[in-house]
Amino acid sequence: MMITLSSNFVNIFLGLLLSYLMDWRTMSVQKEIVEKEQFKTELAFLKSQINPHYLFNTINDIYALTQQQSPEAPNALLKLSELLRYMLRESDDQFVPLAKEILYLENVIELQKIGQKGSSYVNFEVVGEISQLKIAPLILINFVENAFKHGIFNDKNNPITLLIIVEKDELNFQAINSINHVKKDKTGGIGLVNVKRRLSLIYDEKHSLAINELDNEFIVNLKLNLL
Hints:
The radius of gyration is 25 Å and the shape is elongated. The protein has helices spanning 7-48, 52-67, 73-88, 98-115, 141-150, 190-202; strands at residues 96-97, 122-127, 134-135, 160-167, 170-178, 207-213, 217-225. The chain is built from six helices and seven strands, in the order αααβαββαββαββ. Helix 1 runs antiparallel to helix 6 (190-202). It has a five-stranded mixed sheet with strand order 2-4-5-7-6, covered by helices on one side. The chain has a two-stranded antiparallel sheet with strand order 1-3. The protein has a single domain, classed as Histidine kinase-like ATPase, C-terminal domain (Heat Shock Protein 90, 2-Layer Sandwich), CATH 3.30.565.10. It has 227 residues and is α+β, with helices and mostly antiparallel strands.
């Protein structure tokens, strides 16, 4: 038995189908917008949690230098201004030149050394071509700060080691520090939790992170695919 569909029925059916598809598309777009806004909001929140205690400590160190009329004070102020300019302006971008991120880390390390009056020992080395690569801003700073906060940095025989190796589009970052058991934070902090979440949001399956805590040594190994 052959069923004949009237043109009116077909038109109604197609109209309903088109309406459904348009509603589905609208809902999909709205969902995508909401997810993107949530993504941006969470990243902004995580980024806002970076560095507050470090900045306060740095300002206190520079204030002490000015009180002592130290010749290091002008250089420290210059480094701090460069650091703040990067944090407040360029770090708003989703990705920044890797060279600028490395310069930011160098300024952080230099300020740490100035604050410790030369008794801070850090080996920071960058290997490979970095000029054409970009990275999420402030993605490495938590590991550097963690090394200073929980590590021993005044032993010249066991300096903090920070190493960046770039091979094509892959970045390998390593941080090694001796553990300062006297000032070790038993409860932990938001720093490493923060950076793990940011890595998950930004790089997802394009990264691997291994953190190992031995009896006297803390080791971080991070791999990022920068493409």
